[in-house]
């Protein structure tokens, strides 16, 4: 199984080759490309940028940071992965500058930020298709409906079996692998599939680390799990993705919205005061918007239309 650090670094190599700007002067040329002038003329910054939040957004953030480090070696960027909810907790506490999220901010979180006198701006960086996956040896669950998923995942006081969905399926207990409750992926699944009902209590493993979920599903023939599209792509040789209503998650079906209701936007929330007062934070956010589309595609997500990034760049510039 590939780790995302390896995947991100591999993507950087491929990206650099496609750009055709590699070689012994790649760091200087990267600085020129991203700062609009010669490397010698580019403003070299110092500082710290603190980020936490969604594990789904993390691969994009890590890929962006690999590129950014070549242009601003003295800016130290830390990327934590405590889930969207955990990231917002740190954001509200004033511990981070940017908060990655795989779901929109909640009303209670907005209220908490207001109480803490923290103004923020929401930036959308990519699109994801929450992927339902089963073990490679599972030769029965090819296609499921939203109602099938509800029957499986909503707690009803009984141990769930595959035959509960289809009598022709095995009378074997289903083993569930879900993101933890601090995860934006869990929140999204809870909203569109569980509809706020309790998730199953038997035979379930929950983790904020999507790699734990991947390992669980690959190790059990009767397992089912869900996580971001990029984690499926990184492990597609070891997993089988389930169609939902006859539609498989792909770049095309996610971008078009055909893969419904599991297509969703991915976000970075930025603290306005940090953008205005800390040149390193502003520069990093600017670099993120300039490169999010390419990096999202490199690690397995779907980029936004270029106009969307341009609109958000104007928003960022107005904040400055």
Secondary-structure element series: HHEHEHEHEEEHEHEHEHEEHEHHH
Structure summary, number of beta strands: 12
Percent range for helical residues?
40-55%
How many helical stretches?
A: 13
Full CATH superfamily name of the largest domain: Periplasmic binding protein-like II
pLDDT averaged over residues:
88
What is the CATH top level name of the largest domain?
Answer: Alpha Beta
Described by strand count, sense and barrel closure, the largest sheet is:
5 strands, mixed
Task: Write a compact overview of the structure shown.
With 320 residues, this protein is of the alpha/beta class.
In words, what does this structure look like?
- The protein has 320 residues and is an alpha/beta fold.
- The protein has two domains: 179 residues, Periplasmic binding protein-like II (D-Maltodextrin-Binding Protein, domain 2, 3-Layer(aba) Sandwich); 118 residues, D-Maltodextrin-Binding Protein, domain 2 (3-Layer(aba) Sandwich), CATH 3.40.190.10.
- The protein has 13 helices and twelve strands.
- The strands form three sheets. Strands 2-1-3-12-4 form a five-stranded mixed beta sheet. A five-stranded mixed beta sheet has the order 8-7-9-5-10.
- The protein is elongated, with a radius of gyration of 21 Å.
- The N terminus is likely disordered.
Fill in the keyword field for this structure.
320 residues, alpha/beta, D-Maltodextrin-Binding Protein, domain 2, five-stranded mixed β-sheet, disordered N terminus
